[in-house]
Design brief:
By secondary structure, the chain is mostly helical. Helix content is about 85%, strand content about 0%. The protein has one domain.
């Protein structure tokens, strides 16, 4: 049952990626919307869940927040190291972007989607009602996941073929995760720590890369409105799922 329901996440992820592909003539609006979606996912979905799951403190600070900061710094470090390596070899790159960063970020989205599938499977172990509730929440925000996976891959200069490959992997991941839930059980504290780390990395990409690029060539009011709309959409999804 969990795998069948996870097919809804598969279709919604593909729909999000398809939408990102179809509006390439309004690239600044796509990036603005992607930045808002990422901001909303981090602030309204991932971080609250991480704080709830990983409720221990380390030297007076919640462990989830420490990992959140660590994720932000790791993403910054990786991006700088890759950009520096390409510059040292004389490679040309747009605003110092390395394609490897886009692929790494997309791979992290795939991992997150697999965790969503595990959550669906685990919830169905508790009961059918709980499983359907979790599935609705996952399916609702998987549109944003597909949109962001395709956008993150392409904005760093990767060719369309690779972006579609990462999108398909992201769509399949919840189904695989739901199937693995039959055999695996992830401790809640480990899951919370992962969400904090992933949230920090995602926030870095949104704030330091995606949004500045969105306003670089088109500092229009419409771009800002798309960012606000993206964050508001995630708020709506979280509210309806709750």
């Amino acid at each position: 049952m969990a795998v069948f329901v996870a097919l809804g996440a598969f279709l919604m992820t593909l729909a999000g990626g398809w939408t990102a592909q179809r509006v390439t003539d309004r690239r600044h609006l796509v990036l603005g919307l992607a930045g808002g979606l990422m901001l909303g996912v981090v602030g309204l979905d991932l971080l609250p869940e991480a704080l709830r799951a990983a409720d221990t403190e380390v030297f007076g600070v919640p462990a989830a927040l420490l990992l959140f900061v660590a994720g932000f710094l790791v993403a910054h470090l990786v991006e700088r190291l890759l950009a520096g390596r390409r510059a040292a070899h004389g490679a040309e790159e747009h605003v110092h972007r390395a394609p490897e960063v886009g692929l790494t970020a997309a791979a992290a989205m795939v991992g997150h989607s697999a965790m969503d599938g595990l959550a669906i499977g685990a919830a169905f172990h508790v009961g059918g009602g709980m499983g359907l509730a979790v599935a609705v929440a996952v399916i609702a925000h998987d549109f944003a996941d597909g949109f962001n996976t395709f956008t993150l891959t392409t904005v760093y200069g990767n060719e369309r073929r690779k972006a579609i490959g990462m999108l398909v992997a992201d769509a399949v991941a919840p189904v695989v995760g739901a199937a693995l839930a039959v055999f695996l059980t992830i401790p809640e504290k480990v899951l919370g720590g992962y969400l904090g780390l992933f949230g920090g990395a995602l926030l870095y990409l949104a704030a330091a890369e995606i949004l500045p690029e969105a306003h670089h060539e088109h500092p229009a009011r419409s771009t800002l409105l798309c960012t606000i709309a993206g964050a508001a959409f995630i708020w709506l999804v979280v509210g309806l799922a709750g």
